[in-house]
């Protein structure tokens, strides 16, 4: 529980406007499945009813979901049953970090009914409290005169989908003696304007004698379209206490309201072997510090970094926030001083990394009234990601042959093993799973994708995974693709006119890296955010014929792919062992159709060769290399 208070109603204006031209080309829509954390939590086994004796909670009751960056599940201390998604990404201008989001998904982050039409609205999520003792405490007998209220805040839509009038958010109270739930409050859905991004306070008096029982409970529930993450409501600062007055509000304070930006210059997550301090370490980052007082507050800010063994790493010292301090959020928005945008002068990560690494970064903001902290995990693993691991909406193109490409820069030679792509079953989920796409790799011009250098031979289909949060499918290439250091665009070409709905993170903005192509021309995205296409790097050369990688029978000297090939062929050759060699391509009729002296890895253009069967020869005076088959198929 945080030790701070906040006032009644908070409003902030954020505009998401795009021109009609771009909306006709690339679009966003609400999501169909939730994902959240880099570390996948197990479902909370305690968050369900059991046959054990019930031990009710004493007043006051309070939950602000401040643990949202560590678990997508509500705390079992306060809640006995839940299908909501605890998160940091969906709310706009939250009062503090973390909300409980109600939508059309079940507790495993999958649609209740993927076949439900968009026009349907029915029972969806619930959030049910533990039993609360409203009978007595320390020999004091509660009564309606004690001014006991349920108090909470809600926001419609946020970064998600606006609930329609057929949708609703509801509150029920439980009468233990009658074993009956009773509706005590509700609101119909509506479409908030761009300026209506506030959290609204609700106060519900508890006065009926039937509620004054040791096993009192309350619950939230919503009605929504149950085919996806639609019709969003976000609930925060849930409180029940005695002697509640209208002027009482939730605790005030200076708090972190959203997750900070990455310490890295370009990515949220990246492969460890591509990290070098000079190229990838940021010079600053941004915090989102919110002052919920109605006056300026001085204080201090600092952060700590620990490695995977929990060893403290030297970092920049405590930063004082001088006079006039942090201005109230309602007047000035998030704090913009140097504590919110600190420079990184003492670099916390090694100059280079030799293995996968994880660093825990904890941010602290302190003043005379409260201290707030926030944990951020920085991963160096085997894939690139611009997104922060959360998807609030879905990105789509709805034209046959449309291409989506994301820019990535390889700092060292590597191999592309697979691509993680998060597809969201927002609408027409079953139809989309029958649609198809291919993974592509393009070269780079100074301003956009260049010619394609690889098209995977396998036609792939969107997958929707259920079972927990953060289940992002991985699509393995038919052959392990070597890529020299340089800039590439990695993405898909869809072989359908259905919108494939790729997860889109609204909280990190890398639209400069996203391009689309509907009609032969590449266009940079106009939509702020980050698409969830994550190339997975590093693989051993595969030897089965099904993966289209052919190896030498002598010393594994020569490797080439893809096979079947189209317009380009990658050659892997270790010149350090055997020196230069003559590379030849011979047709099935015995005609030499290509010849080149190679002295290392090569990318060669075979676009002039016709479809058919060929043989590759490598001629070197120091050894004999068996010919290998090459198929060209376009």
Q: How would you portray this structure in words?
A:
The protein is mainly beta and 634 residues long. It folds into 4 domains: 56-251, Jelly Rolls, CATH 2.60.120.260; 259-381, Sandwich (Immunoglobulin-like), CATH 2.60.40; 393-537, Jelly Rolls (Sandwich); 545-632, Immunoglobulin-like (Sandwich). β38 (581-587) and β39 form a beta hairpin. It starts with 19 loop residues before the first helix and ends with a strand. Mean pLDDT is 84; it is low at 1-24, 35-51 and 541-555.
What descriptors fit this protein?
634 residues; mainly beta; Jelly Rolls; Immunoglobulin-like; 4 domains; six-stranded antiparallel beta sheet; six-stranded mixed beta sheet; 43 strands; 3% helix; 39% strand
Summarize this entry quickly.
By secondary structure, this protein is mainly beta. It has four domains: 56-251, Sandwich (Jelly Rolls); 259-381, Immunoglobulin-like, CATH 2.60.40; 393-537, Sandwich (Jelly Rolls); 545-632, Sandwich (Immunoglobulin-like). 3% of the residues lie in helices and 39% in strands.
């Amino acid at each position: 529980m945080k030790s701070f208070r906040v006032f009644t109603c908070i409003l902030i204006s954020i505009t998401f406007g795009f021109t009609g031209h771009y909306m006709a080309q690339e679009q966003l829509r609400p999501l169909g499945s939730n994902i959240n954390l880099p570390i996948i939590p197990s479902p909370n086994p305690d968050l369900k009813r059991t046959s054990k004796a019930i031990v009710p909670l004493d007043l006051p009751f309070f939950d602000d979901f401040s643990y949202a960056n560590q678990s997508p599940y509500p705390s079992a201390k306060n809640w006995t049953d839940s299908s909501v998604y605890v998160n940091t990404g969906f709310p706009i201008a939250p009062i503090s970090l973390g909300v409980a989001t109600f939508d059309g998904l079940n507790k495993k982050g999958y649609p209740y009914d993927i076949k439900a039409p968009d026009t349907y609205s029915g029972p969806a999520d619930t959030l049910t409290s533990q039993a609360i003792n409203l009978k007595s405490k320390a020999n004091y007998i509660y009564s309606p005169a004690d001014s006991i209220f349920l108090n909470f805040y809600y926001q419609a839509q946020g970064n998600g989908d606006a609930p329609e009038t057929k949708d609703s958010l509801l509150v029920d109270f439980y009468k233990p003696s009658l074993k009956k739930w009773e509706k005590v409050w509700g609101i119909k859905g509506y479409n908030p304007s761009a300026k209506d991004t506030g959290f609204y306070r609700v106060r519900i008096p508890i006065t009926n004698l039937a509620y004054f029982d040791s096993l009192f409970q309350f619950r939230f529930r919503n009605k929504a379209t149950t085919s996806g993450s639609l019709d969003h409501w976000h609930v925060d600062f849930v409180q029940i206490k005695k002697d509640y007055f209208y002027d009482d509000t939730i605790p005030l304070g200076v708090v972190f309201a959203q997750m900070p930006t990455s310490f890295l210059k370009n990515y949220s997550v990246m492969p460890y072997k591509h990290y070098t301090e000079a190229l990838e370490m940021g010079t600053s980052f941004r915090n989102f510090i919110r002052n919920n007082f109605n006056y300026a507050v001085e204080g201090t800010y600092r952060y700590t970094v620990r490695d995977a063994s929990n060893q403290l790493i030297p970092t920049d010292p405590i930063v004082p926030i001088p006079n006039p301090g942090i201005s109230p959020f309602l007047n000035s928005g998030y704090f913009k001083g140097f504590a919110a945008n600190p420079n990184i002068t003492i670099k916390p990560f090694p100059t280079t990394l030799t293995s996968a690494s994880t660093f825990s970064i904890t941010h602290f903001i302190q003043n005379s009234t409260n201290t707030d902290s926030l944990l951020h995990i920085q991963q160096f693993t085997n894939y690139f990601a611009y997104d922060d691991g959360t998807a609030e909406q879905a990105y789509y193109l709805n034209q046959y042959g449309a291409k989506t490409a994301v820019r990535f820069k390889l700092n060292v030679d590597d191999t592309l093993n697979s691509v993680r792509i998060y597809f969201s079953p927002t609408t027409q989920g079953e139809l989309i799973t029958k649609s198809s796409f291919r993974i592509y790799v393009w070269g780079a011009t100074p301003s956009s994708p260049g010619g394609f250098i690889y098209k995977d031979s396998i036609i792939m289909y969107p997958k929707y995974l259920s079972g927990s949060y953060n289940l992002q499918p991985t699509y393995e290439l038919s052959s392990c693709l070597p890529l020299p250091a340089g800039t590439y665009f990695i993405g898909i070409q869809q072989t359908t006119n259905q919108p494939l709905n790729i997860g889109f993170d609204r909280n990190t903005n890398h639209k400069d890296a996203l391009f689309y192509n509907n009609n032969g021309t590449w266009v940079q995205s106009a939509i702020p955010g980050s698409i969830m296409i994550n190339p997975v790097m590093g693989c051993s050369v595969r030897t089965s014929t099904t993966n289209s990688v052919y190896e030498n029978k002598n010393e594994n000297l020569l490797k080439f792919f893809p096979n079947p090939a189209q317009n380009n062929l990658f050659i892997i050759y270790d010149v350090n062992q055997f020196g230069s060699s003559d590379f030849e391509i011979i047709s099935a009729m015995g005609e030499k159709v290509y010849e080149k002296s190679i002295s290392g890895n090569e990318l060669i253009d075979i676009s002039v060769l016709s479809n058919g069967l060929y043989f590759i020869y490598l001629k070197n005076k120091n050894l004999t290399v068996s010919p290998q088959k090459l198929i060209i198929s376009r």
